[in-house]
């Protein structure tokens, strides 16, 4: 490749593409659109799945549904797209989100630049040419100037190492890799391990179908009723009319959701008023419960009022007092782990075909040919469902086996925890951009809003480089260290680190460094910091 000095020379070579994007989910699709349509670059997407969808391509477990309101869980970049698409329910099911992303891919003719079935297994940077070589499982190599990972944060399934799994005679599944043809549980005794957002969505659905469901719970979880329902024509019309204001509000707050948070703290109102507001929010349902008061995530006393309210609800729903007590979370404040929302989760334990097993008190010892053995009992099962989560944020990036400048590896560089600047670049990995990387607000937000901010920043950065004739960008070590210190401080300003076993901290994966990975300082704050850095000529990044 010739030494480029103009945008055309940088970006219009035949042999080497300007950018490779890994992943065709929400991030990858929009990143491709921007690079191709706005910058006129030659960009391709490498996608392991056979179609678009990302996390929604793989997550097809019973009850898989998004916890964001459907109208807010969508792209905002094209006003006619948001006018022509109508969501059918308050929360979109996995299949409907897949249809939406397929529609986006068709509408913007994105598929012609996407290689499906192309699983990336390695990528290395060449200092001499400033190019990346990306290798796929089938042995193909692709070369590009910019490598952009759009691999999601919770896409690396975690199947815990439990002795004996290979001996199990029944079928077992991880929710994140669900068979596309579905699973028929009728007449079966099913064991479900895990009570995070996924397990809480799946349990009621499996219980309805299976002969018996045994839920193996290590940590009791708070959950808010979703109150999912079809969206009426009038609601859809009102949303569409109001979209500009809704989008503006979503971008200008800390989490990218459409909720309005009042200025008051939980303790600034009378206990009757507090209770009334919690009851209203419970009746309304959804993640908006976190926004009933302004200080639920920052003041433990305020949070305790919400935690107590939910604990009371669990006790009032679950009829058997012992089961209710086991289901009642006590070891972390509400929303310090990502709070699930549910449809009849706690009610499910009133069914005669559902049993709750406390594997904190008596841990799972092994899986046998016929079921699960805990330290005090054997449970006979025909199928096991692992709703055991993900090696979040760093897992999908480490799986790419990235080799940076001078032959360094990301696995070594992140052995004590990730280091990035804005979540978007890692020192030592020039021309590599990570959408929703560790250090970005991503998972603490309504994802599409965060993704639009992250990808727009990357696009602007690449456009800037093209204008200036730069062919290499790399985050400074000092700037990345300062950013990670800020990420750590932002988390400590909240109650989030109090859930010391959460995946935000990497604590769900044995041996993983304990680093609070997402940026808890808020999306709008993050966006303005990112803009300031860009305006200052990409301060903290070295370009040449
Ligand atoms: O995973 P999790 P998830 N033995 O890590 C348990 C998003 N999401 O798939 O808490 C026994 O939260 C583990 O126990 P503990 C959302 O961001 C979004 O449910 O570690 N149990 C926990 O109960 C969410 O946060 C939607 O003690 C074991 C569970 O497995 C994220 O995905 C829907 C175990 C794992 O919970 C991940 O949720 C669904 C073991 N060895 C998910 N190992 C939307 O709606 C783990 N567990 C957008």
TrEMBL record:
Name by which UniProt lists this protein: NAD(P)/FAD-dependent oxidoreductase
Name what cofactor the protein needs.
FAD
Family annotation (Pfam families): Pyr_redox_3
Name the InterPro entries for this protein: FAD-binding_Monooxygenases, FAD/NAD-bd_sf
For this UniProt record, give its keywords in alphabetical order, as a comma-separated list: FAD, Flavoprotein, Monooxygenase, NADP, Oxidoreductase
Instruction: Give the organism, scientific name.
Output: Acetobacter sacchari
Q: Which family does it belong to?
A: Belongs to the FAD-binding monooxygenase family.
């Amino acid at each position: 490749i010739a030494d480029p000095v103009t945008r055309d020379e940088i970006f219009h070579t035949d042999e080497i593409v300007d950018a490779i994007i890994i992943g065709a989910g929400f991030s990858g699709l929009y990143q491709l659109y921007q690079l191709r349509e706005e910058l006129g670059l030659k960009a391709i997407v490498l996608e392991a799945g056979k179609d678009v969808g990302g996390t929604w391509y793989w997550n097809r477990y019973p009850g898989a549904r998004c916890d964001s309101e459907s109208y807010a869980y969508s792209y905002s970049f094209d006003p006619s797209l948001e006018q022509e698409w109508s969501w059918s329910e308050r929360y979109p099911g996995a299949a409907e989100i897949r249809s939406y992303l397929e529609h986006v891919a068709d509408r913007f003719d994105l598929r012609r630049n996407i290689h499906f079935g192309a699983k990336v297994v390695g990528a290395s940077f060449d200092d001499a040419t400033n190019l990346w070589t990306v290798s796929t499982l089938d042995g193909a190599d692709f070369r590009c100037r910019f490598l952009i990972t759009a691999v999601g944060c919770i896409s690396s399934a975690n199947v815990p190492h439990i002795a004996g799994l290979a001996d199990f005679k029944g079928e077992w599944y991880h929710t994140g890799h669900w068979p596309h043809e579905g699973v028929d549980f009728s007449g079966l005794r099913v064991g479900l391990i895990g009570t995070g957002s996924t397990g809480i969505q799946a349990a009621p659905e499996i219980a309805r179908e299976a002969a018996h469901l045994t839920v193996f719970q290590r940590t009791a979880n708070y959950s808010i009723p979703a109150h999912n329902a079809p969206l009426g024509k009038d609601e859809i019309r009102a949303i569409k009319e109001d979209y500009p204001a809704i989008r503006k509000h979503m971008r200008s707050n800390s989490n990218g959701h459409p909720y309005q948070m009042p200025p008051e703290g939980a303790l600034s109102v009378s206990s009757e008023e507090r209770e009334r507001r919690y009851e209203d929010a419970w009746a309304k349902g959804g993640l908006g419960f976190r926004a009933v008061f302004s200080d639920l995530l920052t003041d433990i006393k305020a949070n305790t009022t919400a935690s107590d309210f939910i604990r009371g609800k669990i006790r009032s729903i679950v009829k058997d007092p012992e089961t209710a007590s086991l289901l009642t979370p006590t070891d972390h404040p509400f929303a310090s782990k990502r709070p699930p929302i549910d449809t009849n989760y706690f009610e499910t334990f009133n069914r005669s075909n559902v049993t709750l097993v406390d594997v904190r008190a008596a841990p799972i010892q092994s899986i046998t040919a016929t079921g699960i053995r805990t330290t005090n009992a054997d449970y006979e099962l025909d199928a096991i469902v692992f709703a055991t989560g993900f090696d979040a944020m760093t897992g999908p990036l480490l799986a790419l086996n990235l080799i940076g400048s001078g032959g360094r590896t990301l696995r070594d560089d992140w052995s004590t925890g990730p280091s990035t600047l804005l979540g978007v670049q890692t020192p030592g990995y020039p021309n590599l951009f990570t959408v929703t990387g560790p250090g970005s607000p991503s998972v603490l937000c309504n994802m599409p809003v965060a993704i639009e901010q992250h990808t727009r920043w990357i696009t602007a950065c690449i456009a800037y480089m093209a204008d200036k004739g730069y062919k290499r960008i790399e985050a400074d070590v000092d700037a990345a260290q300062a950013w990670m210190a800020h990420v750590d401080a932002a988390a400590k300003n909240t109650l989030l680190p109090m859930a010391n076993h959460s995946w935000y901290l990497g604590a769900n994966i044995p041996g993983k460094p304990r680093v609070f990975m997402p940026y808890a300082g808020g999306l709008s704050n993050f966006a303005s910091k990112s803009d300031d850095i860009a305006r200052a000529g990409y301060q903290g990044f070295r370009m040449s």
